[in-house]
Each structure stands twice: as structure tokens, then as C-alpha cells.
Amino acid sequence: PLHLECKVEPVADNTLQVYWLRNGNPLPHAHRFRTFHDFGYVSLDILSVYAEDSGTFTCVAKNAVGEAQTSTQFISHRKCCVLKEPHHLWEVDSM
């Protein structure tokens, strides 16, 4: 499995929209992709990882004030998985 996470602020902003992209596109609807967003904690779990899952994963957070995003590159190999250059999303301003 693959687990990615980021933190977003303000944690109590009920207008905050958070979503994940792979290579700039929305994730496909599949049972192996699980997303979670609660009180500033955001995560993406891919339950079964395949070579075609390689790419750049981006966490996007949007509210009325603006948008912030962070990305990391994931490379899947037959026997191991490597994450390159992780970045952290810390804040989306509130109104």
C-alpha cells in the first residue's frame, strides 16, 4: 500500500475543499483509492499499488480566499516503491 498525507489550515473551515490529483488529473474512481479529510489532516491510501500508479500526486486545498497545493513524485517498481521530494501543505488562509 501507499500512504500520502498533508495538513491543511484553517482546520475548522467548512468551505474548504480538498482533493487529490495524479499527473494533473483527478484520481479514478476505484475501490483501492481511499481518501480521508478530518480536522486539518488529509490522507490518500492506495491499497494495491501497480506500476501504472507511478506519477506526481498532488493534494489541492481550496476555499473562498484561494488555493494551495503540494506535490510529490511516486515511482513504483516491481519490488519496491520510492517517494521523491516530498513537500508539505501547511495553510490555506481563511476569510
From TrEMBL:
Pfam families found in the cross-reference section: I-set
Protein's UniProt name: Ig-like domain-containing protein
Cited CDD domains: Ig (cd00096)
Source domain of life: Eukaryota
Source species taxonomy: Eukaryota, Metazoa, Ecdysozoa, Nematoda, Chromadorea
Entry-linked PROSITE patterns: IG_LIKE
Domain Ig-like: residue ranges: 1-76
PANTHER family reported in the protein's UniProt record: IMMUNOGLOBULIN, MYOPALLADIN ISOFORM X1
Biological source species: Acrobeloides nanus
